[in-house]
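cache lookup: miss for this entity combination. No prior model stored, computing from scratch. Input as submitted by user K.M.:
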Amino acid sequence: MDAGEDQSTGDDVIDISFCGSTPLMWKVSDIKKCRGTGVIGALVGSLARQPRQNVRMGRPLELMQEEALMLEETISASASLHTQDCKDEEAARQYEAVLESSYKEQCTLALEDKKTVLRRIMQKKENDNDDSGYAVRDRLNALDQAFSFPRSAMAIQLCTARAGFSHCPDERGFLYTDWPIPRDERSEIRFRVYRDLRSKGYYLTSAGKFGGDFLVYPGDPLRFHAHYIALCMSMDEQLPLCDVLAIARLGSNVKKTVLLCSPQKPSEAGKEERIEEGVVYSSLQWSSIV
Amino acid sequence: MADSETSADAHKHKIFQELLSPSELFQARSRSHKIPVKGQKDFLPNASEHQRTRLQQSLDEHWTLLQEERVERLGNLVKAVWVPEERQVELQSPAGKFWHSMGFSDRGKQCLQAEEALYLMECGNVQVFYHDLPLSIQEGYERFLSSETLTLHQYQVYGHLKRLGYVVNRFDLSSVPSVYERQLNLPASVDSRQRKPVKRKRSQSPVSSDNRSTSSLEKKTAEHQSETNESLAGQTTPDQPLEELMESLPAPEDSSERTWWREERIQTPSAQSQTRAPRWDFKKLSFPDLGSRSRSACLASPDPSLLPGALEVGDCHMTQWLRRLNVKEEKLSRRERDRQRDRDRYHRDINRDPKVRDCRNWAEYIKLMEERRRQQQKQRPSHLWEREVTPLTQPGQCTSHREVMERISIIKPSSWSEGVSRTPPADQWKISFDVYQPDTVAEFKKSHPGKPYSRMCVCSFDGPVPDLRIMKQLSCQSGDVPVTFAVVDHGDISFYCFKNFRLPSDVY
């Protein structure tokens, strides 16, 4: 059913769910684990605490193609490929049962809560030698009969990630070849650059707004500003001068260095095995020579 | 047996790890709703303890916010059901405040579009069930968003705008009024699909429904039928054309004098096609000048031979119609007055030309113009005009820089809407949403949304930049509402729009 033949460690495999060709991540434990390996992603959903604002977003975490591939390589990640449509009556009954028991428990808790409040008031009134404390005590004693907690007052959870009530079988894909991610030359180049920069310890996020491919951070993006804008291109790609000027201007305006990154062709670096999979970096800096 | 149990438990543990217990649910009622502010960032990482603690604090805060689940009071939730065949969500309990600007009725039931339902799920207002089990937000994304409903990028733009307070509807090509419909400017009461009429600048005439005015007019004419004759007789300053009208009334058989109500005798259609077109004597035909200062009070009723059957039409009382005519002096701003003065300085009114007035029809007019042009050409100095390179204009022909520039221009300026077919462009480029401004939300009516503030076309930085053809097609599709391009890049949305701009071709 679900992935995870490793019963020993319990839940080692990360869940990736695809929306079209975009990989998304829903569980907080998965997101934490990914951040531990340096995969940051971008939060694109509403934040549960305050859903009607755009400053701080919540789950799901949207991954770049490169990040999804990286996860598939390093820690095992599996993608859910097709949502099944079966009707599970047993699960519906179970859900109802869970709801009912939750209601009963919340009733008890609410009653206790109310009693505590009344006792506190009573105590305070007795301390102040207030005679109306007797009325409060009467209320307290009558509470067990008089208290009502309607079903509509019950607190319900609206689950963010899949709750798993239904036991419908789920098709999962372990290999990236099964995933609906397009693989072409451009995404290959990007992935090689991503992997190289990650191995050097940098954190990377998407840089579409800055005219580049990646924003490169020296540390966790929560605490540090990006230093570089990485632009990925193949070794033989010819970049027109006006594009170079445009990206250099942009970089100097936002105070980031522009990096032109090209993965080396394996045949060229055949002599030195050390940089077999190396990436060549060139940086653009505005030199104000007057 | 034991193995499968532990694996089932482990699986259960993994799946249910984000479910809250009843006590947690109960305590969630008194949760804080504030979001902590992000502090200043550092520039370079050093291995200092200070940075490490701050990072840990930020991370802890981050995880706390992320793992909070939505907990709502059951009474505040609207219950709904996902219907995959219709690709919409049906409400099973009455809608809340959101019904004011979202949702629609379908076969007597309140329904929501897929993106509206998903947005409301994320806001914690609606709980959607499928096969009797509540859908999580993840399942909502997986089931509701598809190429037939909305893609993820389109939903991200939708959610972004909704969270800012805009009212966002799906775009419907058939609801865009054509240029002609816009010109007609019909009031909203005529058709629920029509837009609200736009008040014209400087016009005082109120937009009213035609039914009301015609009925009141008929009433008036019936009442004043008897009085009109007296008022007409007692008129002190009758217009010359009106006099003719008066005179013609008692002698309807007089064919030499015609009123503007009457025409040539109507012959049978077949006969008419064989006869020549009637020559109208414009000196005798009178068109009442309603805009003139000395206004007449009413117009006489038409020749009864023109009316069908026993219909009687009384005199037409002009006062209430004249009140609707805007006969105020146009108040121009100083700039406009200067501009008009410059224009009129060398302006020669062709209508005052006596030779033009002598022309009896268009053919004669064209002949006169041709003659004049030939004469002008005869006057041209040959050393200038007979060579290979001729002057651009003749003296007096161009009175402004703009006209001279127009003669020079090799590339004719084209407007935004020229050369566009109304067929929709490639699938990649289509308008997704109508967006209405947040401050109009209070008066927003789902049945008469009115003209949207902008229309959204969703794209991404991975794809191509829209070229001129696509931009023209989209803006033509959109009518007179500007099109904004929403570019989605991993949750970050940037908005771009292209504005039509004409280079000024004259110096004022």
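stored under new cache key. The two ends of chain A are 68 Å apart (CA to CA).
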